[in-house]
Structures are given as structure tokens and as C-alpha cells.
């Protein structure tokens, strides 16, 4: 009995959410149904990730999760770019980065820290993650500073944007080579050895092949439900008088990252903090170093060039998020209070964006 | 004989300073007497702190010292807020933060480092202190950036200020829970073990109860003498043509933190660098995360709302101080040259503030 | 036979380059000859450095290399200051700092990392280098921020510049005392012990005395050839329409640091990463904390006062370079990907400076 209620509710809420969306039901009803559906699909994705992570190791599992999670964001981004809605794209990129670094990582460290006094992950990985985050910031700050202090022609702006985007994509692809191939052991999870001694504790529900299929299916479901939910939010934005940037940076980021949230927190509470960090930081790195630059290239291919220049408050928000996340993770050791510090910064940014 | 000269001079200079203040003697005379009295009361406070620190452990002792030291600043701040002198309040908050991070910490590391080649303190504490400092900076930077780039209504400015102040106070109180209760051992002083083996070296002068009473009495005396001394400085400001911000950020900070100075340096020279750092960094954290936000709430209660927006040069001064202090302390190991680097930054800020 | 071709070509290209310069040959021909000569003299300097480094230890060898390398820059700087070409001086100071931190260090870590999976150097040195870099940034940022937000009189600007320059020179000289005298062992190279076991591998070509003489001769040759080469670049600047700041910050920096490049990369590939880092970071620190302040004093002595205020994009470029270099080196462990990250930032700055 217990075995079937979860898949049943998962499929039911998903279908209801789909019907509501395409039949154009009342927005408030659509919102409620989609929000419930998100909980179930996020839970499904979390289980699939955990299972794949069992077979693949914490880091590869975390990477797969981050990638599938961001596939949805990439698709939504391309749709927005093709409509020329550059401000919303940049706001939601900003929101994804700070949402992952502050909210997802903060809740994971907090929840994990309440259960385990100190949680450790590979300190070399922590250092490299920090340096990659700084590359992402520099790639956004430098063009903004140069273009703000020197009035450049539109053409030069596009050249800077494309070159910087190209550098980021190359850096990201080589990061995959480095972390998955040449220095895989060097970045291995510190707790992996001890896990081997407790195989029964983490016995997976599904076979390796089924886990991968479920991971893909769950990701696709999350992508659809997220979009349906985001769609209903537009109506809310107008109703409650929220600014586009607040909705992009906070509401969309919270909802759109529901999958990362649930998976990362669940893993943290099982003391797999390495995988949690990989999801949260890995996902924000993927947005900054891969999704954002790809969107710039796509915008040029579509003939509506988007530049890489973010607004001052977006840069400030990304900058402070990276600054505190780097400071907290760089020793490879975490506790509940560090999670709380990240959430405090999220709160400060939240109230600031809300009032703008 | 030797036993009585110190308390005698302590009481004598304190009384003379009090009489001079209330009888409104010549300002120059008042200044000289108060300055001498400060030396004695600061020495008294240093001894009381050391004694309490013997019973309570380095960290709790340092915390008590920082709290009693900042009680004076809180009282002076409330007086200034009730007079609507917001610029001076913010300048003296700035001065307390940079004075503690650069001057007190710098002199402690320098003096301790001349005597001991390398001094170590808990590296986990160093990391957390760094993250807390960053939270303090973010809380000041974010409102300033958002309010400078988007003209907000006065009401919204107050909302941001109150929410951010509330977040800081909660974060500070939970930091006490974390550092004093849930993770006390984790942040314990690294040298405490070895101290146990040398109890005779640190034999305290007074009993536990008497030490605590003396700590409170000394703090109250420091608060009074500091205020009398600061009072005479107003006359000096006009006489020598110094700007209010320079007096607030440097003169008041040096005099007002005399107690922290003497205690921190004395502890560093006894190789209790953990307690020194706790006084210097703990005191600046307490100002940023507790005293400043409480003053904002008090200003609203008094009906003269003060916002949290500091000037660009105040933010720059706090920012660079945190940046260098974090870099120097994050490895939990200090030497004389690192103290000197902090003093160099203090000098750079000093000449810049002097000429503005 | 093999023994003589290198010195022969070294002297031949050097002489041809000299004749071309003084006989005022065709600029393109001068450029080609000087560029070839630079390769040989840089190679000669690299060998001499390696030999001296064998006798003196990695760090002292690296320091000597950095000092001799920057002697050339100091001389060129004095010539430019006496001509009142302050913008070019500041652009080339900027270029030297970012060239050393990003290009020289980046290529060293990359080349060394391709050969050795992980390379380690003294972690305490890494931390102190980071703090010194931050002092250098603060010394440039604080005057710029104070002077931009408060219109100061020219006289006050000079006072700030001289005081800050004086503080930097004192800090640099005391750093030499600290690192060469009081804490020499503390900062010793981590791999030195293991080297002792393999003396035959590093057997030097020359005696100690001859190595030192060759180091001085090679440095002088590099200084001359660099200047001749830089001289030809002025013509190129006009021909290809490059901005002065791009030429100063990139072309001059690459050519003028050819010696550091070759020496640092060669040492990295021999697993002497400590010496590589000392050359790259040590050289940029020497420029920021010694060469730049000395040029300010010289400018006042020559009666053409130069201030310490750099442009916004120069500050941004130096700031991001320090930020990423500090993040990458602070754990005292390096790999090929970290080198690549530094080169990515160099590329981002390069395209931005190119288009301004």
C-alpha cells in the first residue's frame, strides 16, 4: 500500500497541473495545484538523485543533479531570449546564482548541522569551487566596470560579451575534464571510505539503469511543472505589485530550484554534505559559467544580441553571495550556524530587492 | 607599599577627572587629567579581565571584556542618537570597528609577535569570525548600494534599516548560542591544554567573585572617564581644525577603546593570543552586529529614525579593514609582521580621514 | 659545439638589436630583431637564476630574480616620470602587476601542473603573500575612493600620496627583514628537503660567484633589450591604433617581464613551484609596494609630483587580479586548472583593455 501512494500522487498532481495550465484554469487554482505538484516531482527527483549518487559517487551524482536541474533553466532562458526579455533573463540568472549559494546551501548546512555537529567535505574542492566562483564574478564585473566608465559602441559591447562568454564556456568544459578525469581522486569525497563500511544503510531502491532513467524523467517533469508554476506567477506579480526583478530573483529562483533544494537538503541530512555542496555550488557555477554564456551565444544566433552587462544591484547581489559562500565553504567544514549566516544574507538581499 | 600605590593613584586620578569635568575646568587641564586617569582605569580593567579570563577560559573572558568595553559605547551612542547626531554616531561606529580590527588587533599581534615567534589560535574560530565580519559588511553595503542606485522613499529606507538590523541582532544572539553552548569545545583555545600544566604562572590576584565585581567596576569607570575625555576633545576639534569624522573615527576610537587596547596587548604578550583576538575581533563584531542595530531600533523608539546607510568613505574604511583582518587571521597563526600590516592599513586610513 | 651556439647567438642578437636601435633602422626590422634577442637574453637570465637559486635556496633565488627583473622597470619608470608621462607609468605599473599575477603565475602553474599532478609550496608564505597583496590594493583603493568622493586640494593629494608611499616602502623593507631574517625557516620551501636527496639532478652549470655575475649581466642585458623593444612598439601603437593603456598594460608587460616568464615557467616545470610563485607574486608585490612608491618620491624630488590615484579600470584590473591570485594560492597547493583560471582572467582583462 505504502509503496504505491507516492507514485500515484506524483502522477495525479502532475496531470492536474498540466490540465490546469493548458485549459487555462483560474490562476490561483493553477498556482495551488502546481505548487503541490512541485513538491512531489522534487521529491521524486531527490530520490532518483540519491540513487544515482549511490552508484556514481557523491560528486558525479551531485553534478548530474545540477545539470538536469539547470536544463530546465536553460530552456526557459532560451524562450525568454527569443522574446527579447533580457532584463528578466538576467534577473533570473542572478536569482538562480544567489538562490543556490544562499538558500539551497544555507538550508542544507543548517539542516545537516542540526543533525551532525560538524560536517566535512574535500577541502581542495572547496578551494577550487571558490576560485571558480571568483572567475564567474570577474567575468560579470569587468565588462560592467569597463563599459560604465568608457562609453563603448554597441558593436564593441557585443565583442566583449562574446569573448568573455567564450572564455567562460571553455573554462567550464575544462573544469569538467579536470574534476571528472585528470584530478578525480584529488577531489574525492572525504567520507566515501567510511560509507563503504555501511553499505546496508544506503541500499538503493532501484537498479543503476532504472535510477538513471528516473533521474531523466524526474528532471523533465520538474522542468514542466516549474514552468507552469512560473507562468501563474506573472498574474501574481501584477496582483501583488511585486517588481519583475524581485519575482525573477526570488520567486522564480525558489520555485525553479525546488529540485535542488529538496535533493541537497535530503543529502545533507544523510551526512552526504559533499553532494549537497556539489548541487548548490555546482549548480550556481553551471549557471554562471555555462548557462549564462550559452544564452549570450544563442541570442546572437537568433539575431537579438544580448550583452553580458548586468545591473549594479544584480552585480552587488551576486558579489556578496559569492563572498560569503566562499568564506563559509573554504575550510571544507560546515555547521548549522554557517547555514544560518547564508540565510541571513539571503534575507538582507530579499528585503532590499523587495523594496526596489 | 607597592601594593597600595596603584589603587591610590587609580582613585585619585579618577576623582580629579570627575571634579574637573563637573566643575568645568580649563579644557586642556581636563584633557591631561582624563588622559592620565584613562591609563590607570584601563590598567585596572586589564587586570580584572585577566583574572576573570583565568577562571572563565580565554574565550569567555575575551567575550566578557568585549561586552563590558562596548557597554560604554552603547550608552554614548544612545545619548548621541537622542540628540539626532547621526553622523557622529556612524563615524564613531566606523571608528570602533576599524580601531578594533586594525589598531587593537595590530598592536596585539605585533607586541605578542615580538615576544613569541608564532602564536596560534583556533583555526575554526578564525574562519567563523571572518564569515561574521563579512555578514557585517554585507549588512552595511547592500542597503547603501540599493538605496544609492534606486531613489527610495524615506519610509522604505526605514523598513530596510529595521529588517536588516533585526537580522543582525538575531544572527548575533544565535552566534552566542553557537559559540558558548552548542559548539563551545569546537572553538576552544588551542593553547588551553598546555596552560593547565603551568597553573602557577597564571595564578590570579583575586578570587572569582571579586574578579567579576572588579571587572564591572572597572568597566563603569572606563565608561565615565572615556566620556569625560571625549567631552574635552570637542574643544580640541575646533581648536585644531579636525573634521568630526576624523575625531569620531580615530580620536574617540583610540580613547574609547583604551580598555580593549591594554587588555588585548597584555594578553598577547602572555601568549594568550586567542583571548586577544576575541577582544579585538569580538568587540568589532559586537559593534557591527549588536550595538549598531540596537541604536537603529532605539532611534525609532525615540521617534528620530536613523537609517543604516553609511557614507562611501565609511563603507570603504570598514570594508578594507575587514578584508585585511580576515586575510591575516584566517589561518589561525599570527606573527609580528601581520600586526604591522594591520597598523599600516590603519595609517593609510588615518591620513586619508585626516585630510578629508 | 653545442656548448658554444647559445652564447654566440645571445651576443649576436643582442649586438644586432643594439645597432638597430641606435642606427634607427626600420621599426619592423628593429622589432623582429629585438624580439629574437629577448628570447635569448631571457633564456640566459633563466639559467643564471636557476643556478643562483641552487646555491641560495628557492626563495632567495626567486627574490633576487624578482629584484633584478624589476630594476629594469624602475629605470624605465624614472625616465617616464621625468618626462611627465604619468598615465603611461601607471598603465605599465598596472600591467606589470596583472602580468605577473595572471600571465606569469598562470603559465607557471599550467606548465608545472601538466607535468606534476599537484605542486605544493609553503602555506604560511601563501597566506602572507595574500595579505601583502591586499595591503597593496588598499594603498591604491583608499586614496582613490577618498579623493573621488571629496574634492581635495592638489596639495592634500600630494600629502596623501607621499604618506601612503612612505608606509608602503617601510612595509616592504620590514617584509624583507621578516622573510629573510626573523622568520626565514617558517617560510622555507616545503620541497627543499626532498631535493637534497637528489643533488645530481640539479647540479648547477656554474660556480656560485660566476652564477651571481651572470645573473647581474643577464639582468642588464634584459633591461636594455626590453627598452629597445618597447621603443619600437610606440610606432606599432600608432600603426595598429592600439590605445596607450593597452600597450602599457599588455604589450609592455609581456615583453618587459619576458625574463620572469621564462625563469618562472622553467622552475615550475622542474617542480620548484615555490620559486615560481616567489618570482611571480614577489615581483608584483615589489612593483606595488616598492617600485610604485619610489617613483612617487622620485617624481617629487624631480619637481613634477605624481599622485597615487589610479583610474577606475586600472584599480578594477589590479583588484580582480589580486582577488583570484589570492584565492588560488592561499592553500599552498596548485594544479594545471588553477593556472588556466588565471589565464582566463587575463584574457577577460585583455579584451576589455583592447576595446577601451
Q: How would you describe this structure to a colleague?
A:
Three copies of one chain form a homotrimer. The first copy, chain A, is mainly α and 356 residues long. Chain A has a single domain, classed as A middle domain of Talin 1 (Up-down Bundle). Chain A is 82% helix and 1% strand. The first copy, chain A, has a two-stranded antiparallel ribbon with strand order 1-2. The model of chain A is unreliable at 192-201 (pLDDT under 50). Chains in contact: A-B, A-C, B-C.
Explain briefly what this protein structure is.
3 copies of one chain form a homotrimer. The first copy, chain A, is an all-alpha fold.
SSE topology sketch:
The structure is a homotrimer of 356-residue chains.
Chain A: H1 2-22, H2 27-56, H3 58-82, H4 86-115, E1 119-120, H5 123-149, H6 154-182, H7 192-196, H8 208-240, H9 244-256, H10 258-269, H11 273-301, H12 312-329, E2 333-334, H13 336-355
Antiparallel strand pairs in A: 1-2
Helix pairs in contact in A: 1-2, 1-8, 2-3, 2-8, 2-10, 3-8, 3-11, 4-9, 4-10, 4-11, 4-12, 4-13, 5-6, 5-11, 5-12, 6-11, 8-9, 10-11, 12-13
Number of helices of chain A: 13
Write the CATH architecture name of chain A.
Answer: Up-down Bundle
**What is the makeup of the main sheet of chain A?**
2 strands, antiparallel
- Structural class of the helices, strands and pairings of chain A? mainly alpha
The CATH topology of chain A: A middle domain of Talin 1
The end-to-end span of chain A amounts to 50 Å
What is the CATH class designation of chain A? Mainly Alpha
Global morphology of chain A: globular
Low-confidence stretches of chain A: 192-201
- Helix content, binned percent of chain A: over 70%
| Average pLDDT metric of chain A | 84
What fraction strand of chain A? under 5%
Looking at how many chains there are and whether they match, the oligomeric state comes to homotrimer
Greatest interface and its participating residue counts = A-B, 31 and 35 residues
Count of all domains of chain A: 1
How many β-strand stretches of chain A? Answer: 2
Helix-strand string of chain A: HHHHEHHHHHHHHEH
Radius of gyration of chain A: 20 Å
Biggest sheet strand order of chain A reads: 1-2
The H-level CATH homologous superfamily of chain A, spelled out, is NCX, central ion-binding region
